[in-house]
Specification:
six-stranded mixed β-sheet; nucleic acid binding; elongated; seven-stranded mixed β-sheet; Rossmann fold; Trna Endonuclease, Chain: A, domain 1; alpha/beta; single chain
Length: 398
């Protein structure tokens, strides 16, 4: 017998996908606002479902969401025309939920609700658990959003490199001023070579495009060599010669802020409590327009109990623009059911700054330099994500 799941379309992606991906129906039917114009949303949902349920079919019907009678009549008709119906009352408008409850009771559909905070689908009439919710991946959210991954700005390091990168990052964090000058020097020198070249030879004192002179911090270059990011280092007082150990190492050593991204990525990976940890992810927000356009790069993304977590890393002070950018990115993929964390090398939290207060208002966790330099930074990161309370955010002005 064909199992049919009836859904009310919701602008929150998670409400549209959790029921079908948990219950694996043969058919899913969406009733949606007749004022909705972009039908690629349903193409995206079908793509998401077929990844897990290859045989699934999807149907959609428009309704006037301002008329409870019309919602009721269409819902009743759908139940009558299909067999073994489950009607999920999680998404959609308030009128949809009321009309759906009436139609389901009268026509004999099983009424269910997804508790997205406590990870279970329940029978509305008995409050019994129908099923624990499925574990979702980042790909599920991206597919359902009609987006797609189009690459990474930085190749994630192999686990064997984690310790060296971690040690180098902490060294740079303690010598940020010297790192600024050294990074400018390495960027200027590397720009003279082809992207795949790793051997570098330059005067020790050089001039950048803006006319300012720069030179490397010798201690930082020696530390890069000691930890395996460059080799054959020669500094004779006039010239500097060395080879990056790989193209990836060249990219790391010429990226000022990448070390904080790597640091956070490694902390998340080594914690062992998160799924789908991704570094420097670039997303095309419209996979169906035939044009590949990268949106804003997202420094680190991970999954925490089927909820996407977006982490922005700033090796400087954060500002309102950075918070807003993070807020938009997390809402585009996960809607309300997503989390945002700002990791900034500043004293925003310690000084209870305006930016820190704004982050609290927006429901964004903020970790600052005090957290970054702490020996237990991985535990602080895990705690910030785990203790981020979505229920309390319902009553904040976000």
């Amino acid at each position: 017998m064909t199992r049919t799941l009836i859904e009310y379309y919701d602008k929150d992606v998670l409400k549209n996908i959790m029921g079908p991906l948990t219950l694996h129906p043969d058919k899913v039917i969406f009733l949606y606002d007749s004022g909705m114009q972009d039908m690629t949303a349903f193409r995206a949902l079908h793509t998401c479902f077929k990844r897990h349920i290859p045989h699934i079919t999807l149907e959609r019907y428009p309704v006037d969401i301002l008329s409870m009678d019309k919602i009721y009549r269409k819902t009743a008709q759908v139940i009558e025309n299909n067999e073994n119906c489950f009607l999920e009352l999680t998404g959609g408008s308030e009128l949809m939920v009321i009309a759906g409850f009436r139609a389901g009771m009268e026509k004999g559909a099983r009424l269910i609700h997804t508790d997205l905070v406590h990870n279970r689908i329940t029978d509305l009439l008995t409050d019994e658990t129908v099923a624990p919710t499925a574990t979702l991946s980042l790909e599920d959210f991206v597919d359902a959003r009609g987006a797609c991954f189009i690459g990474e700005s930085h190749r994630p390091p192999e686990p064997a490199r984690f310790d060296a990168i971690w040690e180098m990052a902490r060294y740079l964090f303690r010598h940020l001023e010297e790192w600024k000058h050294t990074c400018s020097y390495l960027q200027t020198v590397a720009a003279r070579y082809l992207p795949h070249e790793v051997y570098m030879d330059s005067k020790e004192l050089i001039y950048m495009k803006n006319g300012k002179k720069t030179y490397p911090d010798k201690a930082i270059l020696k530390e890069f060599q000691r930890l395996g990011f460059l080799k054959n280092l020669v500094m004779d007082g006039e010239r500097v010669r060395f080879s990056f150990c790989s193209v990836d190492d060249r990219q790391y050593c010429t990226g000022y802020g990448v070390w904080l991204e790597l640091y956070v990525y490694i902390a998340a990976k080594k914690s062992g409590v998160f799924d789908d940890v991704k570094l420097g992810t670039m997303i095309d927000w419209n996979a169906y327009d035939g044009v590949v356009v990268a949106g804003n790069e997202i420094d680190v993304i991970l999954m925490e109990q089927s909820l996407p977590v977006f982490i922005s890393c700033k090796l400087r002070s954060a500002d309102t623009a950075a918070l807003n950018e993070l807020l938009i990115a997390k809402k585009r993929v996960g809607g309300w059911f997503s989390k945002g964390v700002m990791v900034t090398f500043s004293r925003e939290k310690a000084e209870n700054s305006g930016t820190y207060k704004r982050a609290q208002e927006l429901g964004i966790e903020l970790l600052d330099a005090g957290d970054i330099l702490a020996e237990d930074f991985p535990a602080r990161l895990v705690r910030a994500i785990k203790e981020h309370d979505l229920v309390s955010l319902k009553w904040k002005k976000v």
